[in-house]
């Protein structure tokens, strides 16, 4: 997956994953890793045990290796709460635009932030960074 997606295209892809906390988050984590790894010289990805089978956290770094407290880390989560409310007027795992707003499970908490942070990360040239920049994307925040 060598091409970058727009923020909205990436959000649509993230919302499409049913990453409800009862499910494995490996599919969405794999997608994020593939998106950020190709092509991305200087990107370092660690898949960290999420504490339960089928669960993992991601620590994704770019730039120099951390040596002290300098650097910047964006933190978010990949899971969402169940989409069982009867008020849904569309598939909650399909991003829909209505009246200038985007609707989909997790679009506000937290996949909207994740899409922006991931694309900021992807846009940075690791060789120009003076300090490390990272993303920490966790699982099971919603439980």
State the gist of this model.
This protein is α+β, with helices and mostly antiparallel strands and 143 residues long.
Per-chain topology:
Elements: H1 7-16, H2 26-37, E1 44-49, E2 56-62, E3 72-77, E4 96-98, E5 101-103, H3 111-123, E6 133-138
Parallel strand pairs: 3-6
Antiparallel strand pairs: 1-2, 2-6, 4-5
Helix pairs in contact: 1-3
Please report the distance between the alpha carbons of the first and last residues.
31 Å
Give Rg in angstroms. 16 Å
List how many beta strands DSSP finds.
Answer: 6
Number of helices: 3
Global geometry: globular
Approximately how much beta-strand content do the residues carry? Answer: 15-25%
Strand order of the largest sheet: 1-2-6-3
Secondary-structure-derived class: alpha+beta
Largest sheet: 4 strands, mixed
Structural summary, described in words:
With 143 residues, this protein is α+β, with helices and mostly antiparallel strands. Helices cover 24% and strands 22% of the residues. The protein has 3 helices and 6 strands, in the order H-H-E-E-E-E-E-H-E. It has helices spanning 7-16, 26-37, 111-123; strands at residues 44-49, 56-62, 72-77, 96-98, 101-103, 133-138. The chain has a 4-stranded mixed sheet with strand order 1-2-6-3, covered by helices on one side. Strands 4-5 form a two-stranded antiparallel ribbon. The mean pLDDT is 93.
